[in-house]
Write a structure and sequence with these properties.
The complex is a heterodimer of chains A (about 1050) and B (about 500).
Chain A (H helix, E strand, L loop, with lengths): L1 H17 L3 E9 L10 E4 L5 E3 L5 E6 L6 E5 L6 E4 L5 E5 L9 E4 L2 E4 L7 E5 H5 L17 E4 L10 E4 L12 E4 L2 E2 L12 E7 L2 H4 L10 E6 L6 E15 L9 H16 L5 H16 L30 H4 L4 E13 L3 E13 L6 E16 L2 E15 L11 H6 L43 H4 L4 E20 L2 E20 L12 E24 L3 E26 L10 E27 L3 E12 L8 E12 L4 H4 L4 E15 L13 E7 L2 E5 L11 E14 L4 E20 L8 E24 L3 E18 L4 E4 L2 E4 L6 E5 L1 E4 L6 E6 L5 E4 L7 E6 L4 E11 L2 E11 L2 E3 L1 H4 L47 E3 L2 E12 L2 H6 L4 E15 L21 E11 L1
Parallel strand pairs in A: 1-7, 13-16
Antiparallel strand pairs in A: 1-4, 2-3, 2-5, 5-6, 8-9, 10-15, 11-12, 13-14, 15-16, 17-18, 17-49, 18-19, 19-20, 20-21, 21-22, 22-23, 23-24, 24-25, 25-26, 26-27, 27-28, 28-29, 29-32, 30-31, 32-33, 33-34, 34-35, 35-43, 36-37, 38-42, 39-40, 40-41, 43-44, 44-47, 45-46, 47-48, 48-49
Helix pairs in contact in A: 4-5
Chain B lengths: L1 H18 L12 E3 L7 H16 L11 H9 L4 E3 L6 H4 L10 H23 L7 H25 L32 H18 L15 H14 L3 H12 L7 H4 L11 E5 L12 H4 L11 E3 L1 H4 L12 E3 L7 E3 L14 E5 H14 L3 H14 L11 H12 L6 H7 L18 E5 L5 E5 L27 H6 L6
The chains are: A mainly beta (about 1050), B mainly alpha (about 500).
């Protein structure tokens, strides 16, 4: 091959020198990783005439001067190189000048060099995602980038994490970041994106980087760029992994049967004392106990298993003890396989990939299966015209039984809350032996006898295998563009992008067993379809003049439309068991459906200028019109300015022996938010909701409209410094930010007696102030061994800075100037009264004195700490020894509080017979146990589990989020097998968690409240990557 | 090549401009309409009354608050004759720890339903005069809106302060008669007299407007002259205007004869019952109100909670000849509860049952009590006996207080229909709950004959909650009887206590 090339050069070389106009083409690569360098400058030596390389690193230069012999290729941070003019395609590898770590980052409508970019952006590489076992890309973001707060509150396979960038800028309006896939806002399901297809993820955090997305980027932007073909030829990558998963943290400790019976006896006894003397009360409690709980696990030999002394009768042993929580769980299996073929020819670059994932949940009847295909093509159709099409299609089947729901068939709560004395399978009440059916099989116990709180007539352990809670999703996502070079440096790019996503929900409960047997089973089936498109047209002009001035200007237009439509029906009364579609059921219970549309129209522009690679300036402007506001208020203008100074390019630092990079940057700008929530598209209109009564049409005023609604505005200031030193072995960046939001879109509470509990208004202002810090280092770098550390941390504060009224109480929070929207404002626990055993809370008298009260509704509300952590982030360590690599990521969150409402279900005082009890209730108040934090038991006790600081816990935790050990087979072996690369690895997720409040998973919402969620799982898997 | 480029640009420029057309940003909902499409004809305006009615009855706040009908269940759970089980639902109302606690969901739910309905009526009344259309229909709709608002204020007057005879200037709830806008301030509490007066004037206004209206017999949920008079009768009686109550009650029951004994035993689930003056029909696809039967119906297997068991002492108030007596049955499975099978799902598979809102029997009782309170005991006894005759009960022939006899008859006749707490509050009465024990204090063992002739013994279980939450005995005018004003109102209405 090389010989052929040399021959070719020898033949053509001299001829080329004498031709009139020569066309030089080639590719500029980074010598280090052979990655193309977009934006490299190619200039004819001694002139200012030249071109820049495109995004793929290629260039094309017409050389008209026959005297020109040499080209100078330069790129920021690289040592310039001179090459002779040649008509043979050139491949130029530039060496790093050792001055910086020049990373190309993907930004709004383009790319930039991180070392000189004026905005704040963190980039996560695809390789960092590959070492994770996650089904949704959102779950992989935790701990990898400063300023990104990720809450993976659900362990349901296929669920997404909640992402917050630099605090919460809105109270009611959406605080979710904008997701951009391959340059265009993405409206599909995030879990339809195969993490393995991702080349990089950029997180845009400040105005300079995100303002070009205008209103849509107010909460930060997450740009996902998928892989493209790079190297000439073709490459095949195969990756297969297998793993197992379990619950990450142990559930709350619950009482055994032997603990439960005397405790419930105590509750009955205490209740009886209200009207009986203590001897009668004890006698009656012993007598009634079994009847109240519905079953006697101690067998017929002990008809009253608890004596009048409140203790188990001597010799009484439970004949069974079933753990329903365990019975509802299993070890999940996870299988993942991916294949990708990628490559490039002269005029095309392509990637085709396919993925399969089967992620079985740890709870019965839960899981996620996904099939994805992707095809990314870029074609140089003409010298001046490039077109590209990225297509992604995904189909997924999710089994998502109820969780995050207060329903009694919540799969997570069902087992947790079932008393231990109830058998899963029917038992002989005398011997405790299993009862068997005619075939000798155990028979599930539906517990007719169980009291209501223990879900009588149900057995989810069995019906989880019969009932359905299926979600089938189909996602198709297309990104099409055409880019024409109109004139030197002037390009026009148009793109049409569509995301289609359809969800079919199918919930079925069977007609013979469990929750809905009496109505003959139910089925709800619905189709929910979302279609969004974005059409944009962008002109860019890039030029370098007088060698040192580099200018890049962009202007364009964008239109966006979102359309959601659904139809849904419910039927009940199945003719026969075993069929589960609406066609098989008799009675229509409901039918519903409607359509929502939302549109946005935008004009945008940006200018970037740099001088000599030292001084960088950028500015952007965007105007958005939103269909959410009245015609006279719908347009908002958003803007940014930014500057950076690359000090290491200055003569006084240029020759520093130890400092490779020092950049200062600052930006400021305004963005907007119109996102009042998914059900609030038309709140400026005086709307009547439509309903009906017995076939007659109805309308009613459900909400107050407000035609004065307008954009919420975010003003963001970002100041940062990046550095790198000792041959780039140590470096980092530190940023300070102030994010002010004003005219907050808020559902302002009103006195409900006016008929409406709130009205959407623009109220008040709020401020997030914080610091992002990321540090990286290579403490050891020898031939065979290296150790890398990456540490990032974020601290921020949130403060309300203005409000239209003195205070607004909303849920567990109160808004007040000077306080955070995440400060809990709840009742203050004052302990158990040692004399009466009653629960007590604090209340403030009108005269200001603070007293205790046993009346929950009389208790006053107090500020009680914040749910926001003081510090959070991640620490990654990577050790490489020869072909081995070990890396682990620890995520941490220090400070902040979480209100554990899940736990309160286990902390009743006896009002819910048959519901499982926390072992903490063993410590309940009695006349001989007066100093305790659990009140006196009683079957009719006033509830004490209402929201109070009693159930507010410290949220500090650290978690070994991922561990990855891999081994790459030696090159020599692989060459024999005609393979490029073989790597085998073992991965672990959430293997270890350090946390104070046992039983609760520490990863909860940003707002710090629990909600019967599917807990996080830990998993261990092994896999192999092949490349040939 | 240049030409190609120009063409390329031209095509996309055209596309750009077409995408920017003016209505691109005007989107409209498909499940709601702007007000100018509602209040453009009288016929369309009628949807605004149907809609708020459907909201009141067919909105789940929780499964234990299936619309406004569940308020009636709350009222009975807080009385003397329902021995509620610990099942989900009204357990905390029964123990008096729910409605006095302003943080509870149920407290906020009724407040929300009633005041949202009031505002919708205010809005309707403020607009209907300007809507083009048939004047006769306009008149009728005005009457219905006015009566609906009157009913809401009447309900509020019943539960948020003690009776008018106890303290006529007791603070009750705020009154609004104008439609709300985003700047409407919360108003202070008016006195109980003022709230009853508002209810009465709304209902008085409605009666003549509805005089010519005759509704279809399948639409008993619509307010007609009889319904308005019936509500007026309640309002007069509760606000201590017995003479006026008599007239209104008689007018209300006109055309609605008392039902037969057999009909009384049919499950109280059919709006077609000739005695029902007002009720909300239910269908398989509209059965939120019917889900109150999950609590009331203690004998159909499909009922989820079956929590409204009868106090065994309550059975003792009936003659064995009384048609109502036949509905009692002791449960022999689980704790020995006394079932009162008055309410039963009509179509258990579809969980459908119509719900009753007003019956002729109540009007007879109002009339009788009106006479008793005007010291016309003879007439009072006479009217009471009309009802007793229909129920095949022994006749009243003097003896004891006729008023107390009528109040007891209300408990017997209207059990489960929502009048227990209303009567306790308006008369300054007290909840009475005794443990179900024999006179020696021992357990009451009941012999329950079975269809096969055998006898099963059960230990009768009655009331569980015999005291107020603070451990004190039930007394007259206990603050635990009143509904709290929800905390969201206290927090967001600075004027509430002015």
């Amino acid at each position: 091959m090389l010989q052929r090339l040399l021959l070719f050069l020898l033949l053509l070389g001299p001829l080329a020198a004498f031709s009139q106009a020569r066309t030089v083409t080639g590719t500029v690569l980074s010598a280090q990783d052979k990655a193309p360098l977009p934006g490299a400058t190619i200039v004819i030596k001694g002139t200012t005439k030249g071109v820049l390389t495109g995004p793929d690193g290629t260039f094309r230069l017409e050389v008209t001067d026959p005297a020109a012999t040499t080209l100078v290729i330069s790129y920021v941070g690289m040592t310039p190189q001179e090459v002779p003019v040649s008509t043979t395609p050139l491949t130029i590898s530039l060496q790093s000048s050792g001055k910086n770590i020049d990373e190309i980052v993907v930004i709004a409508y383009g790319t930039a060099k991180k070392s000189s970019y004026t905005g704040s952006v963190s980039q996560i590489k695809g390789t960092e995602l590959e070492s994770r076992q996650v089904s949704s890309v959102t779950k992989a973001l935790q701990g990898l980038a400063p300023g990104v707060q990720s809450a993976s509150q659900s362990g349901q396979p296929g669920s997404d994490a909640t992402i917050r960038i630099r605090g919460v800028g809105s109270i009611n309006a959406s605080a979710d970041p904008l997701y951009v896939v391959d340059g265009v806002p993405y409206g599909g399901n995030l879990n339809a994106i195969n993490p393995y297809d991702i080349e990089s993820i950029s997180v845009l955090k400040d105005a300079a980087s995100a303002a070009l997305y205008g209103s849509r980027g107010a909460n930060g932007v997450i740009i996902i760029t998928t892989k493209k073909g790079k190297a000439k030829g073709s490459n095949i990558d195969v990756r297969v992994s297998q793993g197992f998963s379990k619950r990450a943290v142990k559930d709350y400790d619950r009482m055994s049967t032997d603990q439960y019976f005397p405790t419930y006896w105590r509750a009955l006894f205490n209740e009886n004392l209200g009207s009986q003397d203590s001897i009668t009360a004890a006698k009656n409690a012993s007598r009634d106990l079994v009847g109240e709980l519905g079953i006697n696990p101690y067998g017929a030999a002990f008809p009253q298993p608890v004596g009048t002394d409140g203790k188990l009768v001597a010799g009484a042993k439970p004949l069974w003890s079933d753990d329903w929580d365990k019975a509802m769980q299993r070890t999940g299996h996870r299988t993942e396989a991916n294949v990708a073929v990628s490559g490039a020819t002269d005029k095309t670059r392509y990637l085709i990939s396919g993925g399969y994932l089967d992620d079985q949940g740890i709870y019965l009847g839960s899981g996620f299966k996904r099939y994805t295909v992707r095809s990314n093509f870029d074609i140089d159709a003409r010298k001046w015209l490039k077109i590209g099409l990225n297509l992604n299609a995904a189909h997924s089947d999710q089994q998502a039984p109820p969780s995050e729901d207060s329903r009694s068939d919540n799969y997570v709560n069902y087992g947790r809350l079932m008393g231990p004395m109830y058998p899963v399978y029917q038992r002989d009440l005398t011997t405790g032996a299993y009862l068997l059916d005619a075939k000798g099989q155990k028979i599930f116990d539906y517990g007719d006898y169980r009291p209501d709180p223990a879900n009588p007539r149900t057995n989810l352990v069995q019906t989880s295998g019969i009932d359905k809670h299926d979600v089938m999703r189909d996602d198709v996502s297309a990104r099409f563009y055409a880019e024409a070079t109109l004139y030197k440096g002037l390009k026009f790019k148009t793109s049409y992008n569509a995301d289609y996503s359809s969800r079919v929900g199918h919930d079925y409960t069977n007609p013979t067993l469990g929750f809905d047997a009496e109505v003959g089973g139910t089925v709800t089936k619905g189709n929910y379809r979302t279609f969004n498109w974005t059409f944009n047209n962008i002109l860019t002009y890039e030029t370098t003049f007088n060698e040192k001035h580099h200018l890049n200007v962009l202007a364009g237009q964008e239109a966006y439309k979102f359309k959601y439509t659904f139809l849904e029906g419910t039927k009940s009364g199945f003719s026969v068991p075993g069929i589960d579609e609406p066609a098989d059921a008799a009675l229509i219970g409901g039918f519903d459906g409607y359509t929502d549309s939302y549109t946005q129209s935008s004009y945008l522009g940006r200018a970037e200028y740099d001088y000599a690679g030292k001084y960088f300036f950028s500015t952007s402007l965007r105007r958005d019109g939103s269909s959410r506001f009245a015609p006279d208020r719908r347009w908002g203008t958003f803007w940014s300015v930014g500057a950076s100074w690359k000090m290491t390019e200055e003569s006084f630092l240029k020759n520093s022996s130890w400092l490779n990079l020092l950049t200062l940057r600052a930006s400021y700008g305004g963005q907007g938010n119109d996102n009042l929530g998914s059900a609030r598209y038309y709140n400026y209109l005086p709307l009547y909701s439509v309903n009906s009564n017995l076939g007659l049409g109805g309308t009613y005023r459900e909400l107050l409209f407000n035609d004065r609604l307008k954009w919420e505005t975010n003003l963001n200031l970002n100041v940062g410094v990046d550095w790198s030193m000792f041959e780039n072995r140590f470096g980092g960046s530190a940023e300070f930010f102030v994010r002010k939001s004003q005219d907050l879109l808020y559902s302002r509470p009103k006195a409900p007696s006016i008929g409406y509990s709130s009205v959407d208004e623009n109220v008040g202002a709020l401020k997030n102030t914080g610091i992002d810090l990321s540090l990286h280092g290579t403490p050891i770098r020898t031939k065979n061994f290296s150790w890398n550390i990456d540490l990032n941390m974020t601290h921020y504060q949130n403060k309300v800075t203005s409000l239209p009224q003195k205070e607004i109480i909303s849920g567990t929070k109160k808004l007040m100037v000077g306080k955070s929207i995440y400060d809990f404002y709840i009742r203050q626990w004052a302990g158990v009264n040692p004399n009466t055993g009653a629960a007590q809370w604090k209340y403030t008298n009108p005269d200001g004195s603070i007293k205790d009260t046993s009346n929950y509704s009389q208790a006053s509300l107090y500020y009680s700490g914040s749910s926001l952590p003081d510090l959070y982030g991640g620490l990654t360590n990577t050790f490489s020894y020869k072909n081995f690599s070990l890396s682990f990521l620890i995520v941490y969150s220090i400070g902040g509080k979480v209100l554990d409402n899940d736990y309160t279900f286990l902390m009743g005082l006896g009002g819910s017979a048959g519901r499982a009890w926390s072992t903490e209730v063993l410590d309940a108040w009695t006349p001989t146990n007066r100093n305790t934090d659990v009140p006196q038991l009683s079957t009719v006790a006033p509830s004490w589990t209402g929201t109070s600081t009693r159930f507010l816990y410290d949220a500090t935790y650290a978690r070994l989020k991922s561990v990855n050990l891999s081994y790459t087979l030696p090159k020599s072996l692989m060459e024999k097998a005609h393979l490029n690369n073989i790597m085998v690895y073992v991965q672990g997720e959430n293997l270890f968690t350090l946390y104070g409040h046992k039983g609760m998973d520490p990863e909860q919402t940003v707002g710090g409240t629990t909600y019967y969620r599917y807990p996080a799982v830990k998993s261990l898997s092994a896999g192999i990557n092949l490349s040939f | 090549m240049k030409k190609n480029r120009l063409l390329f640009i031209a095509i996309f420029a055209a596309a750009v401009f077409s995408a920017c057309n003016k209505d691109f940003l005007d989107t409209r909902p498909t499940n709601a309409v702007p007000d100018d499409q509602v209040f453009n004809t009288v016929d369309n305006a009628e949807t605004a009354l149907t809609g708020i009615w459907a909201y009141m009855f067919e909105t789940y706040f929780t499964f234990a608050v299936p619309g406004i009908k569940s308020l009636d269940l709350t009222s009975d759970a807080m009385g003397s004759d329902v021995a509620l089980t610990t099942s989900y639902g009204f357990r905390d109302s029964y123990t008096f720890i729910e409605m006095a606690d302003n943080t509870k969901n149920r407290v906020s739910a009724y407040w929300t339903i009633l005041y949202k309905t009031i505002d919708n009526c205010n809005n309707f009344l403020s607009k209907i005069d300007k809507v083009p259309g048939d004047d006769a229909k306009r008149k009728l709709l005005k009457g219905q809106a006015s009566a609906l608002r009157g009913w809401c204020y009447l309900t509020l007057a019943e539960f948020y302060s003690f009776g008018i005879t106890n303290d006529p200037s007791a603070k009750s709830v705020p009154i609004y008669t104008d439609p709300a806008n985003p700047t409407t301030p919360g108003k202070p509490r008016s006195t109980v007299t003022q709230v009853y007066q508002q209810a009465i004037s709304d209902l008085q206004a409605a009666v003549p407007l509805l005089a010519d209206y005759s509704r279809s017999s399948t639409q008993k949920f619509k307010i007609d002259g009889n319904v308005a008079n019936g509500l007026l009768a309640r309002a007069y009686l509760y606000s201590n205007q017995p003479d006026k109550a008599i007239t209104a009650a008689v007018a209300a029951r006109n055309g609605y004869p008392l039902m037969s004994g057999d009909d009384y035993n049919k499950g109280f689930n059919d709006v077609g019952n000739g005695e029902w003056i007002w009720g909300q029909p239910q269908t398989p696809s509209q059965n939120v109100a019917a889900s109150t039967f999950n609590f009331l119906d203690v004998s159909s297997p499909v009922a989820y909670y079956k929590s409204f068991k009868a106090d065994p002492w309550f059975q003792g108030y009936f003659d064995s000849t009384d048609v109502r007596f036949r509905l009692f049955q002791w449960s022999t499975s689980g704790p020995g509860a006394l079932l009162y099978k008055k309410f039963r799902f009509r179509d258990p598979g579809a969980m459908v049952s119509d719900v009753v809102l007003m019956r002729a029997a109540e009007m007879y009782l109002i009339e009788a009590e009106g006479y008793a309170r005007s010291n016309n005991n003879a007439k009072a006894g006479e009217v009471l006996n009309v009802l007793r005759t229909a129920r095949n009960s022994h006749l009243y022939n003097g003896g004891g207080s006729v008023t107390d006899t009528i109040l007891l008859e209300r408990r017997k006749e209207l059990w489960g229909e929502g009048f227990s707490l209303v009567d306790i509050i308006r008369t300054g009465g007290t909840v009475v709950r005794k443990p179900f024990k024999s006179y020696t204090g021992a357990d009451s063992i009941i012999n329950v004959p079975q269809p096969d002739g055998s006898v099963v013994q059960v230990r009768g279980v009655g009331h569980r909650t015999l005291k107020l939450p603070d451990g004190s005995a039930f007394v007259k005018n206990s603050p635990y009887y009143l509904f709290a004003i929800p905390i969201s109102e206290m927090q967001n209405n600075p004027n509430i206590n002015n």
